[in-house]
């Protein structure tokens, strides 16, 4: 039996900051915390940020005696990401919703949930918004959001089913066998970033654990619409000179990402994944202060770093915009 190394200080700090140095179970918030491995150390044998969660001794005990299950922990972890982002980049998020002049429009939260404990194990909890009233372009957005949730559910079913017949499932590696027993888990939570008469943007935060993997993963997707008429926002079409805008965006993102890199070898990934290609810029969310670009895990770096985010200020983009877009109203 190999000795378990300590959690590296940098990772430990991130886990604590993510939870605000309090228990990650938001109704508890006890300031006295331990760090828990969602997929147990005995199975994963590594300290990965996505697999770690801050818990107070009381909640920690409830986890270990099975009162709070792994699936719930993934959901708590997914909601922490929301909080972390809100407290840093998106301080003004709430404002845009509160400022929304007419109180007629609002939304409810819908949870699409399915769990299978038979021969192939998986669970999915997909939380998405349902706008009220269910009329006009809000009804169209509702249809799209529901379809997106159902699609995720079907993909998870298919993935779990395919794993049943995969080679890895018949491996005789003990650690792998152990990990496969966990089953797949998928937890998604949302946050409405902008809701005005002209624009709706939503950020979907996803935590998923793939059976057989050593730790869970996290990524974000952005949903952005202009309203009346409903048009899916495509960055490429926002600018007078789209080639010039691509140059500016790409140069800026590469510079920021390279500054964050610890070793220059990783810069090659960055130049590739954030290079001058609109496909590299299709995952973003528009907020009151500008555009937040999400780079998928692997897109601009090695996997260990996970998802990378670059925030681009509206002031920076403003001069490049076409005239009189709905963004002018938002960013004025
Ligand atoms: Zn623990
Ligand atoms: Zn607690």
General description of the model:
A hairpin with a 4-residue loop joins β7 (217-226) and β8 (231-232). It is built from 11 helices and 11 strands. The model is unreliable at 86-102 (pLDDT under 50). It is globular and about 60 Å long. It has helices at 9-18, 41-44, 57-64, 70-87, 93-98, 136-164, 174-180, 242-260, 267-273, 314-317, 326-331; strands at residues 34-37, 52-55, 106-116, 122-132, 184-195, 199-209, 217-226, 231-232, 284-287, 290-295, 308-313. The strands form 3 sheets. The chain has a 6-stranded mixed sheet. A 3-stranded antiparallel sheet has the order 9-10-11. The protein has a two-stranded antiparallel ribbon with strand order 1-2. Among the domains are: 9-76, no CATH class; 235-332, Alpha-Beta Complex (Actin, Chain A, domain 4). It is an alpha+beta fold. The protein is 36% helix and 24% strand. Bound molecules: zinc ion (2 copies).
Which keywords apply here?
332 residues; alpha+beta; Actin, Chain A, domain 4; six-stranded mixed beta sheet; three-stranded antiparallel beta sheet; 11 helices; 36% helix; globular; binds zinc ion
What's a concise summary of this model?
The protein has 332 residues and is an alpha+beta fold.
Which ions, cofactors or small ligands are bound in this entry?
Answer: zinc ion
Strand order, largest beta sheet: 3-4-5-6-7-8
Q: CA-to-CA gap between the ends? A: 61 Å
| Strand proportion | 15-25%
Which sheet architecture does the biggest sheet show? 6 strands, mixed
Number of strands: 11
Rounded average pLDDT: 85
């Amino acid at each position: 039996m190999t000795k378990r190394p300590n959690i590296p200080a940098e990772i430990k700090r991130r886990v604590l900051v993510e939870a605000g140095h309090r228990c990650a179970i938001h109704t508890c918030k006890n300031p006295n915390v331990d760090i828990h491995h969602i997929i147990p150390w005995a199975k994963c044998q590594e300290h990965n940020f996505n697999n770690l969660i801050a818990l107070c001794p009381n909640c920690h005990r409830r986890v270990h005696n099975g009162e709070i299950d792994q699936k719930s922990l993934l959901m708590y972890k997914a909601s922490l990401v929301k909080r972390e982002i809100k407290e840093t980049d998106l301080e003004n998020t709430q404002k845009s919703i509160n400022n929304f002049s007419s109180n007629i429009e609002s939304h409810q939260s819908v949870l699409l949930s399915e769990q299978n404990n038979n021969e192939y194990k998986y669970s999915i909890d997909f939380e998405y918004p349902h706008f009220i009233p269910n009329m006009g372009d809000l009804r169209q957005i509702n249809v799209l959001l529901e379809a997106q949730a159902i699609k995720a559910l079907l993909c998870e079913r298919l993935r779990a089913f395919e794993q049943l017949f995969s080679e890895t499932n018949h491996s005789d590696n003990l650690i792998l066998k152990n990990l496969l027993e966990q089953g797949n888990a998928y937890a998604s939570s949302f946050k409405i970033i902008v809701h005005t008469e002209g624009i709706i943007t939503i950020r979907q935060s996803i935590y998923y654990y793939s059976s057989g993997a050593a730790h869970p993963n996290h990524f974000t997707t952005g949903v952005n619409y202009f309203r009346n008429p409903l048009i899916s926002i495509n960055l490429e079409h926002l600018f007078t000179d789209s080639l010039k805008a691509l140059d500016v965006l790409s140069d800026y993102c590469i510079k920021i990402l390279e500054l964050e890199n610890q070793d220059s070898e990783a810069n090659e990934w960055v130049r590739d994944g954030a290079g001058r290609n609109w496909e590299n810029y299709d995952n973003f969310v528009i907020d009151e202060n500008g555009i937040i670009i999400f780079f998928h895990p692997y897109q601009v770096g090695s996997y260990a770093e996970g998802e990378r985010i670059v925030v681009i200020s509206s002031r920076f983009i403003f001069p490049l915009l076409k005239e009189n877009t709905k963004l002018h109203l938002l960013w004025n």
